[in-house]
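Please check these two lines:
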Amino acid sequence: MSPKLVHLLREAMKAAHGGEKARAHALFGEITERDPRNEAAWLWYASTAEKPVDALIGIRATLNLNASNPTALAALPQAVFRAGVEAARANDRAAAARLLTEATELDATNEAAWLWRAGVTDDPGTAITFLEQVLKRNPASAQAKAGLAKLRARLGPAPAPPWRCPLCEHSAAADDTVTTTCPGCGAVTALDRPELFDAPAPGVDRALVEAAARRLKAAWTTDPSADTAHALGLAYLNLGYTDFAVRALQAAVQKAAPPGPPWRADAVRFLSAQRETGAGAARAESAPAPAPAPGPKVMVVDDSATVRMMVSSLLTAAGYSVVLAHGAEEASRLVRDSGPPQLFILDINMPGIDGFGLCKFLRATAETATVPVVFLTGKTGLLNKLHGRWVGAADYVTKPFEADKLLETVTRLAPIAKAPPG
């Protein structure tokens, strides 16, 4: 560094520490002009800026030189937001819209950015979606509520959404006929007339409905929601698999707390009628073939019953034998009573002994020392991954997990043996 730059840097630092921000900013600006690759000078230029746009220039220049600079990365979302507000106040709506869009992409929790973004948007419908983002994060936001009321008054009543078949997803304008029988697949899509399911409907396109049943059954492993179970029950009813339909509808009703979705009351009445008449048992032998014998045993240890159920459904459908435990103590007892599995899936954040502690114990126990361990957890970050490797984990899958990713990890560490030909 030249003597002139050294002198400028000393003067700039002296001014910054002395509270002379304007002078310091001007000096750091001169330094960056003479030495544009001076990363530290660009950061100081940003921190001493009076105008948000100058601060953003400094932060972007820093990141252009070092994309992983932690100080600049941390400051970028607020710098972009402040520059967007400055542009909006200057009535530069195009620049404001661009910057505020970037601000919400960098930090979707920034309520103020969503509010400002709605304010610089010309399309009322788009502005409404931005204000709904605010209420999604803060339902008590008076500013978002007032803005929504004004925009909706301008737009008038919203058009009725198109009806969509819960099985084949065919869309049509809603009317009483369509919402009872789908014009796409011919399936009965409502439970208010149980007699329609006494026999498979003649107008049903079985290929479409069977494809829908397979899709919905697969979806249940990753989305065990009331709506998914309800749609699966409808598919089985239209195919004549009443016993399987009853099980799916029972799950749907259990998951949909009263008063629940519009279909819940009809499902409750339908199930009551089934209990009274015992209908459905006669067609049990027509149901889909049973699953093949279970494959390798996998133990899932997680204090969340929902996570245990989702992982169990996914792995059971893939052919695994699944054992569930809600904590380290129960997992140890199950290993002692029924032997070790071929794979452990552990949550990290559990009460009592956490996943790291349980993994360390398993590695130190002779019968489980070589059994692979996969951490399934919401704790992200390099330190957690390194800790997991240190205590002996084979892999690490983050929540919310992708079904394909988890299944690929499990099948790699505990593959299911292929059946011999013939």
In short: The longest helix spans residues 70-89. Residues 3-155 form a domain with the Serine Threonine Protein Phosphatase 5, Tetratricopeptide repeat fold (CATH 1.25.40.10). Strands lie at 163-164, 171-172, 297-301, 321-325, 343-346, 373-377, 395-398.
